């Protein structure tokens, strides 16, 4: 249930800021969040934003293949 609430919160925030979110996968134990956007431009937009605005935080944004979200 915690994952569902967190997924919804992340989806809403990312959708407002970067573009339409198609799917979110959360790995609580690994402390990882995978976000699939409906288009590549949105994914690039969030990655660039995090590169420039996450200094000092433990946030790493990378692009991955769709198969990793299944």
Indicate the topology:
Elements: H1 2-17, E1 21-27, E2 32-37, H2 40-53
Antiparallel strand pairs: 1-2
What's the short story on this structure?
With 70 residues, the chain is of the alpha+beta class. The protein is built from 2 helices and 2 strands; from the N terminus they run αββα.
Strand content: 15-25%
List segments where confidence is low: pLDDT < 50 over at least 5 consecutive residues.
none
Biggest beta sheet summary: 2 strands, antiparallel
Cα distance, first to last residue?
A: 19 Å
What helical percentage do the residues reach?
40-55%
List keywords for this structure.
two-stranded antiparallel ribbon, 43% helix, alpha+beta, 70 residues
Q: Would you kindly provide a written description of the structure presented here, covering whatever features stand out?
A:
By secondary structure, the protein is of the alpha+beta class. It is 43% helix and 19% strand. The protein contains 2 helices and 2 strands, in the order αββα. Strands 1-2 form a two-stranded antiparallel ribbon. A hairpin with a 4-residue loop joins strand 1 (21-27) and strand 2. The chain starts with a helix and ends in a 17-residue tail after the last helix.
